[in-house]
Design a protein that fits this description.
By secondary structure, the chain is an alpha/beta fold. It folds into three domains: 49 residues, no CATH class; 195 residues, Rossmann fold (3-Layer(aba) Sandwich); 135 residues. The protein has 21 helices and six strands. A six-stranded mixed β-sheet has the order 1-3-4-5-2-6, sandwiched between helices. Bound molecules: adenosine-5'-diphosphate (ADP) and magnesium ion (MG). The site of magnesium ion has 4 residues, from α7.
Length: 401
């Protein structure tokens, strides 16, 4: 019988309760199945294997939004968005959400803040009984690619409300004086229907300010925004997003009751992102940690992009879906990456052996020598030698110098 040895190892690992050994053996079986063309069987197995990770990440519970939180008619798919009367351009897009939207990944604190808002929006009556109002407006700010837009979509999906998204630069008309009218039309539309209003890329407002001739226009625009935000207060939920916190007019800033900073992911969030974005490849935790080590300071979007590049490289070069295959591919990709990458990434790109010496000597990274072996394909004695040689030290000086 084909693959019997692997099946035997799987049963052994399962009986011993060693989850990591089990994952490793299943990965071995998957690789063999794929190699001999049993793609359908491998895919079926993958669906089983990925179950644990996906249960955590996907299909969050729906939240029943309180009636009083969003008034208005049901927004159906055949309602047309409002348009700029001069140019005919649409003032917003309307998204009805998808059922399988993944939960954004961030630090525990941000996650709890977002969950807290969802709880407020579904327990409006309880809040009112103790004389407090639910938060109705949320400002998300932080660097590009950190998951702000994704978060707004996620909130809308959890509340089962359509998302009406306006880009401020789309509202700013080239025709003087029309911008304020566009803003009013947009808010009228959002207030008429049960929806979440998203003002994405809010910083475009600040761009106007650089243009001295537009001073009058920007005052009108800001005033019109403030009025409309106040007017919307009783009608529904509003989310605004900006990359540049300081560029925003302080009066506009203050209008938002909750302000959440979404920054670059920390180490734990980075590892969860890598695990998710590498799917359907199931990387061992040690491999995930090594990739994460090379991606410090990266945004979620950067991490997603690198994982996609990694998968492309693996697929096109016939690399194995295991630690060593991922390690080799990571090195190859980083060698093509721009020089502003962090030190671990630059070291792996320049000299994988020096990199192994680096991680073997980095106690904070917390990888055992056996784990380094699994993740890189280097033998134990080679790793010991490299660790002792401190091969990374010379290269480190070179990079710093
Ligand atoms: N915190 C995150 N959780 C999950 N995915 C993320 C996260 N941050 C970024 N991404 C990925 O990067 C892409 C860009 O994120 P986006 O929300 O558009 O960033 P921005 O903060 O610039 O609005 C998304 O499509 C998503 O796949
Ligand atoms: Mg965005």
């Amino acid at each position: 019988m084909e693959h019997f040895a692997v099946i035997q190892s799987i049963v052994r690992a399962a009986r011993s309760g060693d989850r990591r050994a089990l994952d490793r053996q299943v990965a071995r079986l998957l690789e063999r199945l794929e190699k001999d063309g049993s793609v359908k069987e491998a895919a079926a197995l993958r669906r089983l294997g990925g179950l644990d990770a996906e249960v955590q990440d996907l299909a969050p519970s729906r939240v029943e939004v309180s009636r009083a939180m969003v008034s208005g008619e049901a927004l159906s798919r055949d309602v047309n968005p409002p348009i700029d009367r001069e140019t005919g351009a649409q003032l917003c897009t309307i998204d009805f959400g998808s059922a399988d939207l993944a939960v954004p990944i961030y630090s525990e604190m941000i996650g709890e803040t977002i969950e807290g808002l969802l709880r407020e929006w579904s327990n409006e009556e309880a809040l009112r009984r103790v004389g407090v109002e639910p938060t109705r407006s949320l400002l998300l700010y932080g660097p590009p690619g950190s998951g702000k837009t994704v978060t707004a979509h996620y909130i809308a999906a959890r509340l089962q409300l359509p998302l009406v998204t306006a880009r401020i630069d789309g509202l700013i008309s080239s025709f003087l004086g029309t911008t304020a009218r566009n803003i009013a039309n947009l808010f009228d539309f959002a207030n008429r229907y049960a929806c979440i209003l998203l003002l994405d890329e809010f910083d475009a407002l600040a761009k106007l300010r650089d243009d001295a001739q537009e001073i009058g226009e920007i005052k009108r625009v800001v005033n019109s925004l403030l009025q409309n935000l106040d007017r919307r207060r009783e009608r529904g939920i509003t989310i605004a997003i900006t990359n540049h916190d300081r560029l925003l007019d302080p009066a506009v800033w203050r209008r938002f009751e909750a302000q959440v900073h979404i920054g670059e992911p920390g180490a734990a969030a980075r590892e969860r992102m890598i695990t998710r974005f590498l799917q359907p490849i199931q990387a061992e935790p040690s491999t995930v940690r090594i990739i994460s080590y090379c991606l410090a300071d990266s945004s979620g979007a950067d991490i997603e992009r690198l994982c996609a590049t990694l998968k492309r490289h693996i697929a096109l070069n016939g690399e194995a879906h295991d630690g060593p295959g991922l390690f080799r591919s990571l090195g190859a990709i980083l060698a093509r990456a721009p020089a502003q990458a962090g030190i671990p990434a630059r070291m792996l790109a320049a000299d994988p052996e020096a990199f192994v010496s680096l991680i073997a000597n980095d106690v904070d990274l917390g990888l055992k020598q056996t784990e380094i072996g699994e993740a890189t394909g280097y033998g134990q004695s080679r790793i010991s030698d490299l660790k002792r040689s401190r091969k990374h030290a010379g290269l480190l000086e070179q990079i710093h110098g």
